[in-house]
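Hi again,

Forgot to attach this to my earlier email, sorry! This is the prediction with alpha-L-arabinofuranose bound. I've pasted everything inline since the attachment limit keeps bouncing my files.
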Amino acid sequence: MLHINPDKTLSHIAPEIYGQFSEHLGRCIYDGIYVGEDSDIPNVKGMRKDVVEALRALHLPVLRWPGGCFADEYHWRDGIGPKENRRRMVNTNWGGIVEDNRFGTHEFLELCDQLDCEPYIAVNLGSGTVQEAAEWIEYMTADGDSTITNLRKENGRTKPWHLKYVGIGNENWGCGGSMSPDFYANEYKRYQCFCKNYGNNKLYKVACGPSGEDYNWTKELMSRIDHEHANGISLHYYTVPGDWEHKGSATDFSDEEYYITISKALHIEDIIEKHLAIMDEYDPNHDIDLLVDEWGTWYDVEPGTNPGFLYQQNTMRDAIVTAASLNIFNKHSDRIAMANIAQVVNVLQAMILTEDTKILKTPTYDVFQMYKEHQDATLVESYAADAANRINEPVISYNDISIPALSESVSVTEQNGQKLLTITLSNTSLTDSLSVELELPIKYSFCGKASVAMLHAEARAYNTFDDPDRVRAFETEEDWNGNLQVVSLPACSVCRICCYVS
Ligand code: AHR
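C-alpha cells for the complex follow:
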C-alpha cells in the first residue's frame, strides 16, 4: 500500500534537479552537440538540430559546462574570437586529443539559448587565476564600456548574457588540483570574492564539495565558508558496479551485478543524508544548498572505443537507476537545489547517443521524459505502509544484497483550480511484478482520466542505431475513481501516473 497525502506538502522540487552535464570529453560536445555550421548534419549555428530538439522535449532546465576535470585546465580566452585563431591544446584528462576550442563561451551560451535552459559555468580554480575567473564573469555578464565587455562586443555579442550558476573549481580534491579541504576553502573564498554581480545579474556560487563518502571534506569546507561565500556545495557520486579498474560491462552483466548496481545507486540516499547532517551543524538555517552536480552510472567503455572517451551503452538497468535516483532527489528537494546527470550526449549515462547523422534516445532519456512533470511541482508525503501504518516496503534479497522493490515519489501542482498528482514508481525486481495499491486520504478521490506512462523491458535490453525504439515508454489513459487504485508494475519497470484528485 502506498499512502499519498496531497495535503501534506513538503518541498518545492527545483526544476534544476533534472539538470544535465556536458564536458569537453570524448564525443559529448563535438559530434554529440556541435558539428559546426558547414556540417551536412542539419544544424542551427553549428548545434545539431536533432539533439537540441530531443533535449528541448525534456524541458532541460540547466546545463553544466565545460567540465568536469576539463574545467580546471580550460582557459576561456582560448575559446573566443575567430575560430581559426583559437588556441589548440591537449585535452590531458580525456584521451590526450587536441582540443581546438571551436566550441567556446559564445557557442555554449548560444546552445543554452536554443535549449532554453540556464547555463551553469564551472570556472578554472585549479590551473587558472583569480583574474581570469573574474574577467570571464565580466565578459559574460557586464554591460558598459570596459576593455573586457568591448572584447565581447567585437566577438559579436552586444548585450551581456544572463548567468546565474557558477561553480568555482571541480573536484579540487582530485583532478582539480589535489587540494586539501582547508587549502581549497581558502582558495574558494578568494576566487568567489572576485566573481562579481554586474547590473541585475546575480550569481549563485557553488563551492566544490565532496566525492561520495568523503565526509571530512564536507566538514572542513563547511567549517570555513558561510552563505556570504556560497549558495551551495556540490556532491559527486557515480554508480560503479565493480571497482575503478574493472567497472563492469554496460550491457553484459549478471543478475548479481544488476542488484549490486541498483544497491550502489540507492546508497546515494545515505550519502546525501550524512552530508546534509554535517552541513546542518554549520548551517542550521539551511542557507547553503546541496547540488549533486555529477551522478550516474559508470561502466567500462564499449569495446573498441577510445578508453578516454567514456562511451557506454545504456540499458533498462540504467533506467531503473535513473528512476530510483530521481525519486531520492525529489524526496530530498528541501535541500537539493540541483542535480546534473553525467553526461548529456555520448558520455557515461547519456540521454542520447549519436553516430554520424543518426541519434538514438536511451532508456535513461525516457525516464527524464516521464519525470519532467515533477519539475517545479511540490513534493507531497507518500510512504509504503500497512493498515497499522508500519513501513512495509517489499524487500528483494539476492545473495547478501537487500534492496527495496519499490522506489517512489509523488508531487502535486495546481492546474485549473484542481490538484494534479504526478506519481513515479519503479519496480527494481528482475523477476517479480509488483502490485501497488495507491491510497489517498478518504476525503480525496482520483477523478477522471489518469495518464499512465510505462517503461519496461528486460534489464539488459537497449536501443541501437538499427533498432532505436527497442526500449521505449508507452502511454495509456485509464479511468480512475475513488480513493484507492491498484497499479501493476511488471518486473524491471518504471511508471509515471498523472491524475487529478479532488
Ligand atoms: O564525468 C566524468 C568525470 O568524472 C568528470 O570530468 C569529473 O568531474 C568526474 O571525475
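The longest strand covers residues 2-12. The domain at 2-378 is CATH 3.20.20.80 (TIM Barrel).

That should be everything now.

G.
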